[in-house]
Amino acid sequence: MADVEIRGLDDAIAALNRKLEDLTGLTVRGIEDVALDLLRRSVMRAPLDKGDLRGSGQVIMGSTVIAKGAKDGSVMQMGSASATDTPEATVAYGMPYAAKMHNDRTYRPRQPGTGPGYLADPLRENGQRYVQHIAESFRRSLM
After folding, report:
1. Count of domains observed in the chain
2. What is the pLDDT of residue 13?
3. pLDDT tens, 71-89?
4. Which pairs with CB-CB distance under 8 Å and at least 24 residues apart come from 116-123?
5. Is 15 among the domain residues?
């Protein structure tokens, strides 16, 4: 039986691993962009009384909170995702009454433009654009 030696395989594997890291990094950044945009849009629509609901909004990537809503309707970014993060984000509100306020379509807040569906509605309205943005991030990583 003849021995076969393949040269350059280690270099090819290293190059492939670098490309996979780039792919993951750009995809993670695309997902981060989308999650931050969704938080910004939803915070502005969250019902406003004392601002606690708005202030409880957050974006979590991996186990790290990278952004939080503020009582004034703005969003404070406290960090960013890294290429090592799982390409998954959570946009959530932490007040005990958040789900009830979100789901009760009979609730009519005093401030126009706010109310129920404050998270689902912006996601539904921008979902296609979000998918396109993430897909474009993925495509860029292939180049």
Report:
1. 1
2. 67
3. 999 999 998 877 556 778 9
4. 117/45, 118/42, 118/45, 118/46, 118/47, 119/38, 119/42, 119/91, 119/93, 121/45, 122/38, 122/41, 122/42, 122/45, 123/38, 123/42
5. no
